[in-house]
Amino acid sequence: MAIKPFSFVLGALAGAAAQYFLDSQSGNRRRSVATDKSASPGDAEATDLNEASLARKVETEIFRDENAPKGKVDVNAEGGVVYLRGELDDEGQIEALTKAAEQVDGVERVESLLHTPGTPAPTK
């Protein structure tokens, strides 16, 4: 029975990996480094995830009321600052959403770029 070249190469690679990670002198350190690198994403990815999580958390809180203008407001976060964008019917809604967003844990500041119909959108 002949050994297939692919099976032989795959077996050789598995053996080399096992020897590398199970080495009695350096294997423990190598396993730890490999685990750390695979378990922790880069800083930018973690920041993006945290910002997205904060934005979703704010959305959950400010749109909890069934009468909230869910489809009219975009929420995003950047460095702990939450940005609200969109057009709402009146200033009272704008104030209410802004205050609700300020109360959410993790929010450092809220930048409201919300506006009423017929008024220009704020630019910061």
The largest β sheet comes out as: 3 strands, mixed
Low-confidence sequence ranges: none
Overall shape: elongated
Report helical residue fraction: 40-55%
Strand content: 15-25%
Q: What's the structural domain tally? A: 2
What class, by secondary structure content?
A: alpha+beta
Number of E-state strands: 3
Radius of gyration over C-alpha positions, nearest whole angstrom = 26 Å
Give the CATH level 1 class of the largest domain.
Alpha Beta
Distance between the termini: 74 Å
Question: Judging by the overall fold, what is the CATH architecture of the largest domain?
Answer: 2-Layer Sandwich
Per DSSP, the total helix count is 4
Per the CATH scheme, the topology name of the largest domain is Histidine-containing Protein, Chain: A
Q: What is the element string, with H for helices and E for strands?
A: HHHEEHE
Give the rounded overall mean pLDDT.
84
Question: Regarding quaternary structure, how should these chains be classified?
Answer: single chain
Summary of the model, kept short:
50% of the residues lie in helices and 16% in strands. It has helices at residues 5-21, 27-39, 43-62, 91-102, and strands spanning 73-78, 81-87, 109-115.
Description:
- This protein is of the alpha+beta class and 124 residues long.
- The protein folds into two domains: 5-39, no CATH class; 43-115, Histidine-containing Protein, Chain: A (2-Layer Sandwich), CATH 3.30.1340.30.
- The chain is 50% helix and 16% strand.
- The chain has four helices and three strands.
- A three-stranded mixed β-sheet has the order 1-2-3.
- Helix 4 links the parallel strand 2 (81-87) and strand 3 (109-115).
- It is elongated, with a radius of gyration of 26 Å.
